[in-house]
Amino acid sequence: MSTKQRIENIDRRRFLKLTGLAAGGLVLGASLPATQPAWAAEGDVAGDLNLFVTVHSDDTVSIVCHRSEMGQGIRTGLPQVVADELEADWRKVNVVQGLGDKRYGSQNTDGSRSIRRFYDTMRNMGASARTMLEQAAAQQWKVPAGECKAKNHAVEHGPSGRRLRFGELAAAAAEIPVPEEKSLRLKSSDQFNYIGKPVDTVDTPDMVVGKAQFGQDIHFDDMLIASIERAPVLGSSILELDDSDAREMKGVIAIERLDGGAEPPLFKPLSGVAILARNTWTALQARKKLKIQWSETAHHAHNSDDYLAALQRTIREPGKTITDHGDVEKAFAEAGDRHNATYTVPYLAHATMEPPAATARVSEDHCEIWGCVQDPQSVQQNVAGALGLKPEEVKVNVTLLGGGFGRKSKPDFVVEAALLARKMQRPVKVVWSREDDIRHDYYHAASVEHYEAGFDGDGKVSGWLQRAAFPSISGTFQAGVDHPSTSELDLGLSDMPFAVPNRRMETQRAEYHTRIGWLRSVSNIQNAFGVCSFADELAHHSGERPDRFLLNLIGPDRHIDPSQGDFEYGNYGEALEKFPVDTARLKNVLRRVATRADLDLRGDHSEGNGEGWGIAVHRSFLSYVGIATRVEVQNGELAIGEMHCVADVGLAVNPDRVHSQMEGAMIFGMSLALMGEIKMENGAVSNSNFHDYPLLRIHQSPPLSVEVLASDEPPAGVGEPGVPPVAPSITNAIFAATGKRIRELPINKHLKIG
Amino acid sequence: MQITVNGSAREIDVDEQMPLLWVLRDELKLTGTKFGCGGGYCGACTIHLDGRPTRACLTPASFAEGKQITTIEGLSENGDHPLQQAWIEHNVPQCGYCQSGQLMSAAALLATNASPSDSDIDGAMTGNLCRCGTYPRIKAAIKTAATADNGEEA
Ligand code: FES
Ligand code: FES
Q1: Residues A599-642: tens digit of each pLDDT
Q2: Is the complex ipTM more than 0.95?
Q3: Does the domain spanning A215-297+356-431 belong to CATH 3.40.630.30?
Q4: Which pTM does this prediction carry?
Q5: Domain A315-349+442-753, what fold?
Q6: Chain A contact for B69 (CB, 8 A cutoff)
Q7: Burial annotation A176-208 (CB, 10 A radius, 16+ → b, else e)
Q8: Cα separation of A470 and A443, whole Å?
Q9: Quick check: A354 and B18 CB within 8 A?
Q10: A657 Cα to the center of ligand 2, angstroms
Q11: CATH class assigned to A9-208
């Protein structure tokens, strides 16, 4: 085990502080140095425990999940690991949602990292508790500890057949010193009861009876509901407000202004006017009666169609070189044959099924929040900043999230609730409508990428140029950013896996005009669309079958380190030794997924009709995913016939939830590829609801299959890596079917969607 | 105004234009019925009005007078409607937010069509969006529930 963690027996007061729950029996906490920065600097020894398992005298076991549940099954996956090493009975396990607290280390539930970051520690903690229970039993029976073995929520003494339940041992076990990490005996994988096995998902029973509680569902008798009319254009503020009609509506309690302040946007609320009312409907209705005049800003001239058209021109001009291997110019000059292409992806919105919502209660020196948030500590910081409190004076209760996809790690909506609750001196729930959500998102960047390749005399790709232009997420946090950041290139572009001797990566200027944020798989969306489309174009250009061409292009088995000079490859925050960029694993996925497709099938290219298959493989979040898609095109109408996913995610802790994440990723990927497009006119979003920002519906959802490859490699990302290869697999299939190459998403610009 | 929700009469004092969605969620604290779009596009707010699947976000309270309203909380007494069981068996929900509406639409389908075909399912469920992408499992679970139901009757 590489992490130097410490597992400690802790007292009840500290447990109470972190979980809001009283505890009895054996309580273990573990510190996790991997997430050190937040708290290590303070040297607060008592406070640096961040993961908990409690064995109660009533035989139940509580396991804290400090990450947010948004459909990925983390409230099942993490506890499942502890329960397995502990030899607990899953039916007796309660999952406790951790409050926001920096002592947990990072709680930011994004980047597909929950399992991979906490897997080892969770196992050690379970094993520690198990060892202490075994030793407690040994003391009681006055037998050697080696003869006592935990099994199915009890400790057994083999020779005498005696047995004590965990609950009966909990108090005694609490007195046992915590075992040294080195002495822990971890299970081998053939001994696992739960890891890698299907277990009941903890929240499903509540979900099917309507009892699961989301951010939108919070209620207090004395609370007000707020609905906010926000500035349509970034940076705009209120010039004039006439709220007289709104004030006259029955049930309207107050009307308050929010001031967005200067750029960068950060996680600050946008400027707006809030209606506070006794119920949601009154607030929504009264909002329609507001007459607001907004100030003009530089972003009023922003028009997404014009913006993308301009990028499509400038992307052909030389940009800023980030990495440069060999001599691309020379390779192109000597090339017998060349090919180039430009790819475009529009702005995209998260459109979580649950629009954002947060409730706040504020007193002089304290604030309590209830909300569907991906990052409770960021809530603490931002709310504290807005209210002039200390982060630890902000208590954050994390509800279930009705989808996250990155939207709910931006706490602008929580800050709104906190500011309004302070003004009103009573709890306020801010309810975002769907229109609010679609119009005031942190959008996935609109992007244009340009690729050029040269073939040498033997038909091998000898030169490869890739150039990206999109407004960077960094612009949301820092004024003046006008190029993609290197961390965004790390998501599928700098780690492009092809063995081309001469290659260069460039960025081109692109300014931001709206709040840009991260959306499920982030810039892997446009990077994989570009890389996987262009590779397919080259395959067809050279007359080779795409899978064979790709295998050659990826080249020999090797580990790639994309770093060069000042450019340091981020690798999703993990060491390349533990999670290499491994071409063998990528090729393995490619070979598997190619068997699902009939890549010789060709449609009628002259008529633009027919049936065809496309494949795409991509590494992201340290996992390797291949998608094979069959499409049919008839008279300009596209139907997706079937889609297959092959995934190497390392060890799959909860295989069913890995499958469901891949299924979800395919459907998420189809939505964005087929119909996802946010448009801006005069600086404002022109979409408003699901009629003009459509999502895939059940009748459009084809039969799907998922194959998760068995692996002993460390667990890698699961929530996001299924998304990137979906779009190029579809457009590659459309090319096979029709001979028509779609380089501009969404596909419904070019073909009708059945 | 008086309305009947899950078999009990409830007195409400609201503007009669207030959609049932907000009557249920804000006034009666029945938050199983979800707010997804407010415009009839997503189905998250689906309830039964006299057994028929209805979008609560588009239905004024006054329209429900004299009719039986069923919400997800009242779909079955013990959470053991064949669809609820099948939903657990297939581990359908991801985030879960759309699932009340999915279940109510599916229950209305099975009430009138004991063994729906794929296209029957598509037809009945196409108004219910799921951003997490649980469609394949929804289809499979509806079929499981339909078979279970038919088996019991036989
Ligand atoms: S909330 Fe009623 S259909 Fe979406
Ligand atoms: S389960 Fe999340 S929207 Fe359907």
Answers
A1: 999 888 888 899 999 999 999 999 999 999 999 999 999 999 99
A2: yes
A3: no
A4: 0.94
A5: Aldehyde Oxidoreductase; domain 4 (3.30.365)
A6: no
A7: bebbebeebeebeeeeebbbbeebebbbbbbbb
A8: 12
A9: no
A10: 14
A11: alpha beta
